[in-house]
Amino acid sequence: METALNRSKFSWAEYFSDKKTGGHRYSTEEFLFKEAKEKLFHLNGGKSLLDFGCGAGELLIYYVPNYERVVGADFSNSMLFEAEKKMWQQNYKNVDLILADDETIWDKLNLSFDRITATEVIQYMTPEQIDAFIQHASNYLNEEGKIVLFDIIDPKLYSLWKFGWFSQNFRFWKTLPRVGMGCFKQISAILKNRPRDIIGDSHSPYLIEKIANKHGFKTEYVKSMYYEYRYHTILSKDIMRPLRICEALAEGSRPSYFTT
Ligand SMILES: C[S@@+](CC[C@H](N)C(=O)[O-])C[C@H]1O[C@@H](n2cnc3c(N)ncnc32)[C@H](O)[C@@H]1O
């Protein structure tokens, strides 16, 4: 008999194995088009793109016409199947879809990219996975390339959002039942061996910045346009870094990059 103690470990790969949409706030074409437009603005050009965790291709479909070469990767077969259907319907020939996760993807790539992006994916990764992802991605980035991580969940903003802070009729007393319900859900999730929040984990902008700095990137923080509690991070190679390290060493101080 399955009990809380012997229940098999939860895995996101299993969770997504039969999913067919990315769970955007609205699944209308109009909304997805607007979301994609916001993302294309921040991607800001480039000729080749890797969309890691592309899911059902709901945004990818809008990226493809803007790039010469596109690779979409995801560890969910069902999601990739949906993405493939969309690409086929549009007769797009410049896109490859790869079944892979954050570890296996790198050996399956045969080109490097001007842009490497991931939308609503970082929340399913641990800080260690994010660190390894950025390190690997760095090796597959063309000169002046960028890694653009979209819609990361901000822990502070997400808590506020859950308690209704952003709603028009926010009243403090209304948050109390929500707090109670939140605690109940967390305990119940732990007992069911599920993640504390099915939306995944939040990661602070400082954590992402620290990891990015460690791998020689500087970061730009951008608020998400369509999700109150999410933010984007744009990572570009910090070309001034060696100079700053030399300056710091000359002054006899330890550059902050070394402290991670
Ligand atoms: C919320 S969906 C977003 C999909 C797509 N980026 C979009 O915005 O429509 C998250 C996707 O990331 C994929 N994913 C999560 N963790 C992954 C990992 N470690 N390796 C590969 N894919 C992953 C899931 O299978 C899922 O398709």
From TrEMBL:
Residues 50-145 form the Methyltransferase domain. One of its GO terms (molecular function) is methyltransferase activity. Pfam families: Methyltransf_25 (PF13649). SUPFAM superfamilies: S-adenosyl-L-methionine-dependent methyltransferases. The keyword S-adenosyl-L-methionine does not apply. One of its GO terms (biological process) is methylation. It comes from the Archaea. Keywords: Methyltransferase, Transferase. PANTHER family: TRANS-ACONITATE 2-METHYLTRANSFERASE-RELATED (PTHR43861). This is Methyltransferase domain-containing protein. It comes from Methanosarcina baikalica.
